Amino acid sequence: MKTKNIIFSTLILLSSILSSCLSNSLVLEQNTSKYNSLNKDKTVNDFYPINTGRTWTYSLKQYQDEQPNTKFNEMTVSIVNNTKEQGFDSAVMKRFYPNSSIQPNQTLAKIFSDHIELSRYVQQSIFESLGAKINKSIDYIDILNSPLESGTSWEGRSFKGGTEKIEIIGQENVTVEAGTFKAIKTRHHLVYDNGKEDNLYYWYADGIGMVKLHEEITMYIKQWVKMKSDGELKSYSK
């Protein structure tokens, strides 16, 4: 039981670094030119607001090999402080699981004019179980990059034993508990040297932040298992 709790705390930690939500209704924008024109006047910081006091609350569900196995059913993320520095704005994000004794570390967000970096408090055991090892010299992951249009892609986490590619898939209308939002959808595609693959999806709405997530991590626990996590934005305050 303790091992599973650690596993799911790590899995949700990925979502917490990048926040959350599960969709009830999705409509994919197939017209790329329309998608581009909708966001031509927007910058990455429009999709990741970091003003002090802003709070998001999410419902969470976890699965092991498609079977329900929820360890954390709610998460609150809040901005505890932010500062303006030369070339970027930064903010400290605090996460809290009301129904768990496990509380993750805080996250540092850096908002540049053309990309957003988040500090990566990812437990090394996730990648070691797949024969990979995190490069500790790289402290941040870019979660959004310009231009905000379908096909934009960039390298993700740097670790031995695998690669990660992040890309903007398109735009979707996402309906969650907190409402319906037009959101940018991104995918993190992890490919490991042992042949395993994982996909993590995140959705960001203008003026709101992250409004949906779907994460999966392949792990070896006496046998290979696929851990998944979904979430839904319940409420937020500006």
How would you characterize the overall build of this protein?
By secondary structure, this protein is mostly beta strands. It has one domain (2-237): YmcC-like fold, CATH 2.40.360. Helix content is 12%, strand content 52%. It contains three helices and 16 strands. The strands form two sheets. Strands 1, 2, 3, 4, 5, 6, 7, 9, 10, 12, 13, 14, 15 and 16 form a 14-stranded antiparallel β-sheet that branches. Strands 8-11 form a two-stranded antiparallel ribbon. The longest helix has 16 residues, at 2-17.
Keywords summarizing the entry:
single chain; 238 residues; mainly beta; YmcC-like fold; 14-stranded antiparallel sheet; two-stranded antiparallel sheet; 3 helices; 16 strands; 52% strand; globular; disordered N terminus
CATH architecture: Beta Barrel
Task: Classify the secondary structure makeup into a structural class.
Answer: mainly beta
* Average pLDDT for all residues: 79
Low-confidence segments: 1-38, 121-128
Tell the overall outline.
globular
Order of helices and strands: HEHEEEEEEHEEEEEEEEE
Number of spatially distinct domains:
1
| N/C terminus separation | 38 Å
Helix content: 10-25%
**Main sheet attributes: strand count, strand direction, barrel closure:** 14 strands, antiparallel
Rg over alpha carbons: 17 Å
Extended strand count: 16
User: Tell me, what is the CATH class?
Assistant: Mainly Beta
Q: CATH topology, anyone?
A: YmcC-like fold
- Number of helices in the DSSP assignment: 3
Q: Give the DSSP E fraction (strand runs of 2 or more residues).
A: over 45%
